[in-house]
Amino acid sequence: MQDTTEPWEVLVVLDRVHDESPAVIDAFRDRLPLRALHSPAPHGVVAALNVGYDQARGRVLIRCDDDLTPAPDMVRRHVAHHRGRDDVGVSCAMRDVPSATAYWDTYGREAAARRTAQWYDREPDRRWVDWSAHNSVTRTAWSRLDHGFDPRFVYGQDSELGFRLARSGVRIVVDPALEIEHRGAPLSAANRVPRAYVAGASRSLFQRVHGEAHEVTVPLRRGLRTRAWDAGTALTAAALTEWRHYELLGRGAESASRRLPPNVGRRVVAFCVESAGRAGRRHGSTDLSTYRPQKSRELQRERPATG
């Protein structure tokens, strides 16, 4: 339950039912102000999000994905940020829940900590970059957008929406008290490496659509090791240009990380992730529907990865 005196509702959008989700929802109907919308055919994340935002009844629209664990004061804290104003968007950091995997021990733990820190370290005018699975805006702010989530962005749809919110005049804030547990992070390099390729392709599409969004300039790294690293990832990205290459590379990195010392395995995974991101940016398709199988393959691999 939520600790709030404000009227509120939970709206769940089911994009095709293929598990026990309806039964789980029914079990909570007597405890929560709950509505569920069912789509008999799968239309994808973007369509489900747009339906949810359009059908929600409240003034404050709080996004909370199904792999997040909200605290009892979540609704109250979000509503407080929007009281009497429509020009604020609340972006909430996610904290990955540890997993008992070699990937977590060698690479995932440090990567997750860096990712969480980015929410708090980002310059205010770049906070839209981290707009993701847990945030809030008012109905008025949402309605001012030219459209909802862009169906071209099968991946990267969240930050693309965050960019347009910021461009429309919404000031994005980050509230540490709303940091939330995330239970859907990658569990293996076999998932993380090809996902990086898709993220790179998404960035390429973003630049094509929003050329006015300036890139953050990364300072030239000095030192022999860092220059060798940059050259190596650039060469790998030039040689391995397709998504399927990084599926294979990811599986290889996962296998290697289980056998190598942790500090070596970490660098192997990091090298593959950075190479994949570069390759996706340079060579990936901007028709992101090409990469729809990525998520289903990740889900298929999760069970073996936890064993």
UniProtKB/TrEMBL annotation:
Pathway named in the protein's UniProt entry: Cell wall biogenesis; cell wall polysaccharide biosynthesis
InterPro entries: Glyco_trans_2-like, Nucleotide-diphossugar_trans
A GO MF term: glycosyltransferase activity
Lineage top rank: taxon: Bacteria
Domain Glycosyltransferase 2-like: 4-108
Any one Pfam family match given in the protein's UniProt record, by short name: Glycos_transf_2
KW Ubl conjugation (keyword) present: no
Composition skew (Basic and acidic residues), residue ranges: 295-307
Classification via Gene3D superfamilies: Spore Coat Polysaccharide Biosynthesis Protein SpsA, Chain A
Region (Disordered): 280-307
Record flagged with keyword Membrane: no
TM spans (from-to): none
UniProt keyword annotations, A-Z: Glycosyltransferase, Transferase
Family label: Belongs to the glycosyltransferase 2 family.
Protein name: Glycosyl transferase family 2
